[in-house]
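Need the bound structure for manganese (II) ion, inputs here:
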Amino acid sequence: MDNENKKNEVEQLKEKLFSAPKNAAIKLTDEKIKKADKFCEKYKDFLNVAKTEREAVKESVRLAKENGFEKYSKGKKYKPGDKFYVINRGKAIILCTIGTEPVENGVRINAAHIDSPRLDLKQHPLYEDNELALFKTHYYGGIKKYQWTAIPLALHGVVIKGNRDKVIVNIGEDENDPVFCVTDLLPHLATSQMKRTLSEGIKGEELNILIGSRPFKADSGSELVKLNIMKILNEKYGIVEDDFISAELEAVPAFKAKDIGFDRSMVGSYGQDDRVCAYTALRAALKCENPKKTCVTVLTDKEETGSDGNTGLNSSYLKYFLIDLANLYGAEATTVISNSECLSADVNAGFDPTFPEVLEPRNCSRLNYGVVVTKFTGARGKSGTSDASAEFVGRVRNLLDTNDVIWQTGELGKVDEGGGGTVAQYIANLNIDVIDVGVPVLSMHAPFEITSKLDVYMAYKAFLTFFED
Ligand code: MN
Ligand code: MN
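Answer from helper R.:
Posting the output first, comments after.
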């Protein structure tokens, strides 16, 4: 064999035997790329109107109703193709499409979360200090605190008044609305602050939101700026200071979702972890007609604080729903649950060339390489993860490959670097096969996170394929 032939043989063997991931922008036709870009226009709209878990539920209901879903009525006999939804306390939602196969064969579950890191107001938030009015906050989820200073913030949430009336608050999103801001120290006077570690650069109790500076007009009296703010709030919302005690007010970045890059290939926005998977999961649920297996989409709350609480997936609300579903058809709930399969739709860390040291290049996810399948999350010896079986990974791999979904595998950081968890472990604990499938993100948990449009679209394709299979 001459040298030329030998070289060809090597190339052919490599092609046959080696793994060869390719950028989706090269793999896909221009037509498909256009489709993905178009898909993300509506995705950005969703990000702009659904910045909190409550708003995400509300928008999901609106879209679900538009697509033939009705509110679940307990005991009603649903037939194949019927679609309905159940809301949990306004902060989580389950959407269901009844399949043609009996529920004993198991259901297909897709679970994403709709809560994101933010600054929650404390229960006594309002105070005046040196003639400025501020709100005290307790941050929600894992944040790098310094990132939340000196950016415009909007205030979203609900206040339950003394008579139990509910007031909905959404201020800072409209072009003409005022916004709010956590202040930071000028560099000129930050010599000692700059010596703090990055995690202490801004401390939790320094995340105070500036909300006003003009005093109520009076010749004398204390706390006149606070009084003026309370007067404005009373006029606008009919609330008094004690009403903050029974409120959930969340300060979130006030800016809108935007295209990123000269090539407009990426989306930049607050709250893409995990509304990127919530939105794509929702769209898959809306699109899926007459599936074989009953399809269940869960958009849950409280993932960012560990899934505890009655709207988080460490509670029993999904299990109770599946028991109800089994009962509807006289099936054994344990059989239905044990035969079910689930995608835990959550994001992973995309490779960032500015910080290559935290990811292991052979096993991390990359922007534009498609939806990322994560066998295990966890940290340091795989603690706190469900670790999907080789069999289930094989099943998902085959499913995605046979349906032209571009996908990659990913690991959340180097072995001893850190890591994290998702809802997968809580679903696995119900004796359900589950694996993490989602979108790679840059600057995860920052006020402005980045995803690739092609990956977003591939997540949608993956979720739809899972339901339609
Ligand atoms: Mn997440
Ligand atoms: Mn997260």
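Comments: The pocket of manganese (II) ion (ligand 2) is lined by residues 273, 304, 445 (CB under 6 Å). The longest strand covers residues 118-129.
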